[in-house]
């Protein structure tokens, strides 16, 4: 565990897509993994940006059958043919499958091909093979070779393989940054750090969340607390959550997994497990208001990340996933390959993704509920109030702005929303109104003594452990 000195960050500082990509380039340098020497370098660099606590989990640790893998590296990885070197797998981190075992011997072409991954559609790409970090019981040996090179291999004769890898005990690192607000209720952000050298899937998401937390950290008077978890995909959160107490879990009221911000494609939100939680409502509003193309899909119909861990029974933190995505099964052309570099990303798309998350925080912080101080229907046009929203009249052209019917229509229902439960966000979404304009309008109701207001509270269903009566389980 360490807390590092960090650069000063002003909450008014403008964060550009370019500045996020510059940090992404830095974060892409170390050869990271689930357990890797490169993770020390990565978290040391992140520690220059944010105060960070590191959690450590030793190789071999187990949690529900999940195992922290060994720290692994390649010593030698050559494929030769009649003494001529055809491929050096030590030349790129992705060129040998993560956790491959050693192999020395000769094989024919068919045997070699059974131990090669390549992609005809992306002839220059070295494909990322990650599965054995999650299934050490399946480990074999595999080279990842660009199709353009592999297709030029001879198909006759014998190939000499000299693959020596070292797997030794190490530690999985999970980085955590916590910013305390006036309430211990916590909004969680999560992204993964284990895909070595890959920008869109993941380091751009990591860089973007670092910039977001610098802004949150510098922001005065946060109501919510905020927790950033930067960890190897899946295994990091499995072990991190396995260590949390029930009280800690109860305070995690909403979560957002964020990655793949830089592809020129629509924003995509994948709902929480229940689909109707406050965090779902927040993104329904943000997507309606953001002015760009968006896609909303149900639970697990997105890229698929650690939300299954956060939402697992016994934790059930309502968790959404935010990405940009061309297609669920082919999210972007450079996916899981050496082509996924910061240079392939679009800074404007990165910046708009950042602004969506910033807006999410601003709305969570401002969102309120309202309690009426009257019975019956107040006359809002009375000069004492002067709160009436003039609406169009079919018989008289009043020269009203285009959205006047929406604001006028709001008044048909608004008095019923002053019930201490319905929030600014609920109303903005229901009536397709700007949250911020509505918030300003409702503040005038408070100033005129018609309502009192309180910060909206996110209620999550209680954490239920395996030992408790199944009748009390969440839905
Ligand atoms: Zn991935």
Structure, explained:
The chain has 475 residues and is an alpha/beta fold. Helices cover 29% and strands 22% of the residues. The strands form 5 sheets. The chain has an 8-stranded mixed sheet with strand order 1-10-12-11-13-16-14-15, sandwiched between helices. The two termini are 37 Å apart. The protein binds zinc ion. Zinc ion binds next to loops.
In short:
The chain contains 13 helices and 19 strands. It has three domains: 17-66 and 171-365, Zn peptidases (Aminopeptidase, 3-Layer(aba) Sandwich); 71-168, 3-Layer(bba) Sandwich (Glucose Oxidase, domain 1); 368-455, no CATH class.
Indicate the topology.
Blueprint: H1 17-27, H2 37-47, E1 53-58, E2 62-63, E3 66-67, E4 71-81, E5 84-88, E6 103-107, H3 109-113, E7 116-117, E8 143-144, H4 147-150, E9 159-168, E10 171-179, E11 186-192, H5 199-218, E12 225-231, H6 235-242, H7 246-251, E13 252-258, E14 267-270, H8 278-289, E15 294-297, H9 307-310, E16 319-324, H10 347-366, E17 368-372, H11 404-417, E18 419-423, H12 424-431, H13 435-447, E19 451-455
Parallel strand pairs: 7-8, 11-12, 11-13, 13-16, 14-15
Antiparallel strand pairs: 1-10, 2-3, 4-5, 4-9, 6-9, 10-12, 14-16, 17-18, 17-19
The structure holds zinc ion.
Low-confidence stretches: 1-5
Q: Estimate the helix proportion, in percent.
A: 25-40%
How many individual helices? 13
Oligomer: single chain
Per CATH, the architecture of the largest domain is 3-Layer(aba) Sandwich
Strand order of the largest sheet: 1-10-12-11-13-16-14-15
Q: What hetero molecules are in the model?
A: zinc ion
Number of strands: 19
CATH class of the largest domain: Alpha Beta
Largest sheet: 8 strands, mixed
How far apart the termini lie comes to 37 Å
Strand content: 15-25%
Mean pLDDT: 95
């Amino acid at each position: 565990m360490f807390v590092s000195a960090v650069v000063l960050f002003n909450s008014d500082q403008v964060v550009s897509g370019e500045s996020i990509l510059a940090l992404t380039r830095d974060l892409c340098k170390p050869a990271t993994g689930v357990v890797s020497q490169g993770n020390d370098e990565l978290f040391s660099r992140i520690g220059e940006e944010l105060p960070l606590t590191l959690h450590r989990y030793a190789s071999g640790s187990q949690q529900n059958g999940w195992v922290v893998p060994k720290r692994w590296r390649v010593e030698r990885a050559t494929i030769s043919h009649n003494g001529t070197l055809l491929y050096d797998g030590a030349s790129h981190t992705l060129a040998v499958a993560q956790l491959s075992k050693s192999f020395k011997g000769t094989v024919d072409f068919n045997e070699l091909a059974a131990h090669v991954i390549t992609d005809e559609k992306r002839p220059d790409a070295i494909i990322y093979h990650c599965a054995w970090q999650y299934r050490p019981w399946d480990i074999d040996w595999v080279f990842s070779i660009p199709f353009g090179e592999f297709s030029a291999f001879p198909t006759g004769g014998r190939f000499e393989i000299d693959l020596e890898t070292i797997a030794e005990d190490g530690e999985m690192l999970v980085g955590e940054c916590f910013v305390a607000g006036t309430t211990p209720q916590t909004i969680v952000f999560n992204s993964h750090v284990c895909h070595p050298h890959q920008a869109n899937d993941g380091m751009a998401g990591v860089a973007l969340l670092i910039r977001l937390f610098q802004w949150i950290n510098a922001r005065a008077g946060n109501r919510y607390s905020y927790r950033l978890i930067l960890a190897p995909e899946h295994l990091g959160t499995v072990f991190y959550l396995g260590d949390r107490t029930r009280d800690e879990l109860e305070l995690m009221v909403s979560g957002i997994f964020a990655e793949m911000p830089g592809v020129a494609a629509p924003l995509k939100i994948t709902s929480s497990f229940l689909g109707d939680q406050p965090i779902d409502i927040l993104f329904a509003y943000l997507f309606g208001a953001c002015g760009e193309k968006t896609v909303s899909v149900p639970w697990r119909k997105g890229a698929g990340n650690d939300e299954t861990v956060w939402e697992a029974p016994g934790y059930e933190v309502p968790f959404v996933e935010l990405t940009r995505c061309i297609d669920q099964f082919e999210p972007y052309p450079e996916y899981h390959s050496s082509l996924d570099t910061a240079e392939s990303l679009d800074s404007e798309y990165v910046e708009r993704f950042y602004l969506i998350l910033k807006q999410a925080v601003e709305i969570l912080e401002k969102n309120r509920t309202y309690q009426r101080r009257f019975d019956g229907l107040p006359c809002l046009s009375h000069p004492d109030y002067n709160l009436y929203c003039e609406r169009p009249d079919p018989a008289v052209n009043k020269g009203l702005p285009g959205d006047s019917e929406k604001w006028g229509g709001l008044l048909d229902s608004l008095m019923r929303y002053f019930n201490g439960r319905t929030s600014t966000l609920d109303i903005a979404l229901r009536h397709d109104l700007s949250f911020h304009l509505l918030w300003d309008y409702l503040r005038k109701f408070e100033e005129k003594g018609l309502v009192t207001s309180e910060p909206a509270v996110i209620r999550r269903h209680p954490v239920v452990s395996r030992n408790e009566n199944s009748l009390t389980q969440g839905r």
